[in-house]
Design a protein that fits this description.
heterodimer; A: mainly alpha; 2 helices; elongated; B: 549 residues; two-stranded antiparallel ribbon; globular
Chain lengths: 56, 549
């Protein structure tokens, strides 16, 4: 299987499926990982009570 | 402005300005007899102006150490003012272009004012001038607040802001002289493109340098969107800007790509400019200013993460839907179409997230036009992304492509989403930046809101009607199998809609002028806030509801 037109087209048409599915899985797992919940809740709240001054 | 720069920074500013001036002189010498030489003069003039400014304040006392206990907001303030200036200019030109289609004599027989030249002046002035300055200004504000860190120095933000505006100036003046690459949203020629690369890389470095100084390890979601905006626009701009000038003394260049590859690269750029300039950056704005103004945390932080990655990865593939029925391979068209339809999911997740955040704060939406700007922006975001997915389908595109429907769709997004979220954010941030207790007039914000909404609705409905009529007339055949209408027939049919569109645009422009006046009076006249009170409820008896799960 050389690096010819058909191979390139086959690759272009398929690799996206696999890496996008992997990405989707990764993102969903990260977002719904139970121990991350606290961090996300804190982040959501963080902008509502900000300090008036920078810490540095 | 200069009093806040340290002596070293003033020296560096002078060095930068002398380098820019030298570039201007080189362009003037190399580009004699070419528009490039004229642009060299513009660059030189801008640099000399800057040099005078720096020299005049060079020996002013240095800023005290006390500055480190405050955020650095002056670049944001100037950025907001520049954004509003570009808004009025760009919308004025836009409305002129609109009237030009109703009354073709409005070019006044000049070359620079012909449709092909002032239309890109309009798009560049509103997208890059208004949108870009608003993004830079708000990104500095959001970045510092969410990181809890001051910008790392006082020179780089000014370099980014003024450097960016020099790019916009070169772009807009170039079109009027006939300098253009004729690529949608990428019209400026090679030297302006190179300059933007320098400015943009500086912007990204500034963003990262501030971010590494942040207080909490977690990076708030708005920053993710702003960073995607900066990083991806850099990638797009560099790849689509791969051109060779015909000589170093000429403004004219040719793309490194040819034929359908060039078209695909351009629309990969073009659609992602919509995605990362006009969407990701403004979503960053929305994810900060909307919860802040509503006094409620974002409905689902998790959903904001998922939709972020969805938007970032799906948009990259969607550009080929601009090239349906062209020489582009059929499967590439289908790929772009499929991803465009899939994009509806993360887009609606974002729009829904924004609207659900307001659940429980609808009384504030009713009373507060600033928050209502943001709410209506989220609605238009949802509507225009639905419409976009729909129009990307090949068979729908066969009707809509090359018609005013596309123009209507773009403006549903640009006016309804981008401009409304920007005006809402600006009305929220102006009193915070200038430490005023409120805007000068809530009534005028209300007036602006209704002018903007009315203008958008009139515009979009006019273009829907015009576009669909146009598309149908172009594909209607008579019994003998030839076209039933001539092109001029379709122009006559569109004329009333063009007039309506120009009136809608005029309302939108008037709204922006009202906004400028209100901001000006706030800066000049409204008493200072007693203490900087965050808009969010600081009252412990008023618990903010946790985001629903």
């Amino acid at each position: 299987m050389g690096f010819d037109h058909d191979t390139t087209v086959w690759f272009s048409k398929t690799f996206g499926l696999f890496y996008l599915m992997a990405l989707l899985l990764g993102v969903v797992v990260y977002a719904y990982w139970p121990s991350n919940k606290k961090r996300f809740d804190q982040a959501a709240q963080s902008i509502l009570h900000e300090e008036e001054r920078p810490w540095r | 402005m200069l009093a806040q720069l340290t002596r070293d920074e003033r020296l560096n500013a002078l060095i930068i300005l002398f380098v820019v001036a030298a570039c201007g002189v080189a362009m003037m010498i190399a580009g004699q007899g070419d528009p490039l030489g004229l642009h060299g003069g513009v660059v030189l003039a801008a640099a000399v102006l800057g040099i005078f400014g720096v020299v005049a304040g060079y020996y002013a006392p240095e800023p005290s150490e006390a500055r480190f206990s405050q955020y650095y907001d002056d670049p944001s303030k100037i950025g907001i003012i520049l954004a509003m200036g570009w808004a009025v200019f760009g919308m004025f030109i836009g409305d002129w272009v609109a009237w030009l289609l109703v009354y073709p004599d409005l070019t006044f027989d000049a070359g620079w004012s012909s449709f092909g030249r002032i239309r890109p002046v309009h798009t560049t002035a509103v997208i890059f001038g208004f949108g870009g300055n608003a993004l830079i200004a708000t990104s500095f504000h959001v970045l510092q607040r969410t990181s809890g860190a001051r910008l790392p120095d006082q020179l780089l933000p000014w370099f980014v802001l003024f450097g960016y505006n020099l790019f916009c100036l070169l772009a807009v003046t170039g079109y009027m002289m006939g300098i253009t690459q004729s690529k949608e949203y990428a019209e400026p020629e090679w030297y302006a493109d190179l300059w933007l690369v320098v400015v943009w890389v500086a912007y990204f470095i500034l963003y990262l340098r501030t971010l590494v100084r942040r207080r909490e390890p977690h990076i708030y979601v708005a920053n993710w969107y702003y960073m995607a905006f900066i990083l991806v626009v850099a990638i797009l701009h560099i790849v689509n800007g791969l051109t060779l000038p015909i000589s170093l003394g000429s403004a004219k260049s040719y793309s490194a790509f040819s034929g359908v590859q060039d078209a695909m690269t351009q629309w990969w750029y073009g659609h992602n400019a919509v995605a990362f300039f006009l969407t990701a950056g403004f979503l960053g704005m929305m994810y900060y200013y909307l919860p802040k103004r509503a006094g409620r945390p974002i409905f689902s932080y998790r959903m904001s993460i998922i939709s972020f990655w969805g938007i970032v990865f799906f948009y990259m593939w969607a550009g080929s839907h601009h090239l349906h029925y062209t020489a582009l391979p059929h499967w590439v068209q289908t790929l772009g179409m499929t991803f465009s339809v899939m994009l509806l999911v993360p887009s609606w997740a974002s729009a829904g997230n924004a609207l659900l955040t307001l659940n429980g704060a609808w009384h504030k939406v009713r009373d507060d036009a600033t928050l209502r700007f943001m709410m209506v922006a989220a609605v238009f975001y949802g509507l225009s992304t639905f419409e976009g997915s729909f129009m990307a389908i090949r068979s729908v595109n066969s009707l809509s492509h090359y018609t005013d429907w596309t123009v209507g769709h773009v403006h549903a997004g640009a006016l309804g989403w981008v401009a409304l979220i920007t005006f809402g954010s600006i009305y929220a941030v102006v009193p915070w930046l200038w430490k005023r207790e409120r805007m000068y007039s809530a009534g005028l914000v209300e007036v602006h809101f209704w002018l903007a909404v009315a203008g958008t609705v009139i515009y979009v409905f006019a273009m829907w009607n015009s576009g669909i009529i146009q598309g149908l007339m172009w594909r209607t055949y008579n019994e003998s199998g030839t076209l039933a209408y001539s092109f001029i027939d379709s122009l006559v049919a569109m004329r009333p809609y063009y007039a309506a569109r120009a009136i809608g645009g005029l309302l939108f422009l008037i709204g922006a002028v009202v906004g400028c006046y209100n901001i000006w009076m706030t800066v000049r006249g409204v008493p200072r806030a007693a203490a900087e009170v965050p808009a969010a409820s600081a009252d412990p008896d008023d618990p903010i509801r946790q985001p629903a799960e």
